[in-house]
Amino acid sequence: MGAYSPTPPSPWRHHLLCSALLLIFIWRTAEANEELAALPPRGWNSYDSFSWIVDENAYMQNAQIMAQKLLPHGYQYAVIDFLWYRKYVDGVYTNSYGYDNIDEWGRPFPDLQRFPSSKVDRGFSQIASKGKPYMEDGKQWTARDIGLTHRTCAWMQCGFMSVNTDIGAGKAFLRSLYRQYADWGVDFVKVDCIFGTDYSPKEIITISELLQELDRPIILSVSPGTEVTPALAENISEHVNMYRITGDDWDKWKDVSSHFDVSSSFAAAKKIGAIGLQGRSWPDLDMLPFGWLTDPGVNQGPHRKCNLTTDEQKTQMALWSMVKSPLMYGGDLRHLDESTLSIITNPTLLKINHYSQNNMEMWELNDKGNLVSSYSRLCATVESVQEQGTAGTRAWVATGSKG
Ligand SMILES: *[C@@H]1O[C@H](CO)[C@@H](O)[C@H](O)[C@H]1NC(C)=O
Ligand SMILES: *[C@@H]1O[C@H](CO)[C@@H](O)[C@H](O)[C@H]1NC(C)=O
């Protein structure tokens, strides 16, 4: 996600001192020694259909439908996206200040109103565990010492800020936070406002190192991906399992078409399935915003159907599959229709998405009628009739398991 709001920045001291936003529970826990994210992960994410206000009931219903209809097709992570620790009361929005549930150690915990099972001993009760203040050099360190007040998140300044990972106290805080996530039974974390134009390599690497200390395998996903290039990912991909390479994708053709060039550059740079955190890493094209959705940056609705045509949705699914992007469905599964289900479970595309190799763009027929080879950049001019509003034609190739 990523959203702007006009609310002015507030005093820093109560800000959430971290950027971890998403928690995900997996339907089948990975074996201890299995390679992490050996295949591009698949699942469901609450953001496109609920913005931040998803509650336990809606989440569980979606997770159950995912388990029933999508798990047989490899969709296994059910993601609670974005501000799960914020109270949902009148007048509270994405960039509101002062409504977050933060424990005495500065760590966020789920909003009890929205996630009532957090109250009982189902992993979330770990939020009540007691600890000791962090001491170093005879001093008790506090949030004020580790928060980087000049590095609040540009698009949600009242949301979160960076942590100083150069000092022991900053690392101790992050260690405590990620241990807590592991204790809750989380299998996947997506850390936001830390990549792309919000690039914070020290924090990414620190979190990656802390995750390796844990007994529980946890997939690390970083976001958002505005203005990401293979050069920016160069020092990061080996520390994570997936990383966004574009800004938020919504159900507009312009958003879909803007993924072609950046996907081609990551394929050419051999970043698809490169070494990652305890396994592999995958350039992430963002969720699939199909089916029943909401709008960016809202609270309660409007709830509406996807604006893409069926052909546009098929094109998006085909590109995401050829690029071997993680596939995270974004629509409310309680309103999943047969046409959408058949697009996201297309057996050929899902096989390509998991098992093909050497995926790359072959050529592009651009809007000037030039056929451009993606290898040599040699051009040929072809006669073509251009429909208004289309952005040319692309061809991708990949090697299958049988060659
Ligand atoms: C990646 O690391 C190299 C070597 O430390 C450094 O020169 C380069 O600037 C880094 N790239 C980015 C995008 O941070
Ligand atoms: C979807 O289409 C409706 C009707 O044309 C429009 O009002 C709305 O802004 C569109 N939503 C998005 C996210 O493009």
UniProtKB/TrEMBL annotation:
Domain of life of the native organism: Eukaryota
Reaction(s) this enzyme catalyzes, per UniProt: Hydrolysis of terminal, non-reducing alpha-D-galactose residues in alpha-D-galactosides, including galactose oligosaccharides, galactomannans and galactolipids
SUPFAM superfamilies: (Trans)glycosidases
Signal peptide: 1-32
GO terms for MF: alpha-galactosidase activity
EC number(s) stated in the UniProt entry for this protein: 3.2.1.22
UniProt entry keywords in alphabetical sequence: Disulfide bond, Glycosidase, Hydrolase, Signal
GO biological process: carbohydrate metabolic process
Family: Belongs to the glycosyl hydrolase 27 family.
PANTHER family: ALPHA-GALACTOSIDASE, ALPHA-GALACTOSIDASE/ALPHA-N-ACETYLGALACTOSAMINIDASE
Name of the protein this chain belongs to: Alpha-galactosidase
